[in-house]
Amino acid sequence: MKRLVVTAVLLLLCISFPNSLEARDKAPSVDMSKMNRIFLGWVDVDPNNFAELGYSKAEWLDVIGNANAVFQHNCQSKYLTGRTITAAKDKGDENAAGNDLYIKFSDASFGKNYRLKLSVHFIDPKTNSEIASIPVRTYTGRLCGLVSCLEKELDEVGRKLQLEVAGKPKENQ
Asked: What is the pTM of this model?
């Protein structure tokens, strides 16, 4: 019953206060359109939120793993098409050697409000220096339960990556 009430309240908030991704986007500060080999990092959502969200730790780790797998697939098939994507296999996988760009995620959190917060860092693996970043921001899924909300918010992150890396105009999204 508690989850139903939370879901209903979140549904009403999503309908009442639409959050436009396009209105917040800015042109990329660095041209990454020629970077064709990309290492996509792991979105390391805090695994200790499991109890707050009504999961066992093992179930929550499974949710995080599945959400990362769906996100990585969508980046390859929808958002960063035409590029070779190597995806992190887990939160400790940061081997970006041999790639033109490392997209690293940090400050990730996902709690009872069903909102994903994270920052994105675009790193040159050859020099290990950050060439651009997207500061911590909240990504908002639409009309969803916990698992689908996390996936939808990662979908929004993918659209942002498409804009930053591929430089796709907003009207093509």
From this structure: 0.70
